[in-house]
Design goal:
Elements (H helix, E strand, L loop, with lengths): L1 H22 L2 E2 L4 E4 L4 E3 L9 E6 L4 H21 L2 E6 L6 H11 L4 E4 L4 H5 L7 E5 L4 E7 L5 H13 L6
Parallel strand pairs: 4-5, 5-6
Antiparallel strand pairs: 1-8, 2-3, 2-6, 4-7, 7-8
Helix pairs in contact: 2-5
Amino acid sequence: MKIIKSLLICALLFGTSLSYAQNTKNKIPAVDVKKMDGSKFNTGEIKNDGPIIINFWATWCSPCKRELNNIAEMYEDWVDETGVKLVAMSIDDTRNFAKVAPYVNGKGWEYDVYIDPNGDFKRALGVNNVPHTFLVDNKGNIVWQHNSYSEGDEYELYELVKKLAAGESIE
């Protein structure tokens, strides 16, 4: 009987903490990263009046590049319709740092592109694999995240962006 009571109490406490964790919104951490020109940028300065997409990617990651290239084709319309801002955060290390700007410039991305060569921002957000996408509201709260990429995921992301821009809940 004591074991059953103990298990029930543990289950209740676990369920309460899980519910709390799901309802608590995380903020964008303030971490120093690099701009493509090598100067410093603090991620705490990522702001927008509308939704923000933070996409972790790398020049060596084919799914990452496919996702960002597919979004690039529609990004101008997304901005016009929702006011969204996309931040492409490269996790290329110091050995590959020099590959980021030529790739981005060659693709003509209209995103804000930063580089996290030491992985500090990546670690602060618990990113283990790329691509990893976060959706952030205009108050800096992370409201959704997704790891990996399959063709068409950008349409699901855009539906969430539209809901968030309209002030609707995406849960």
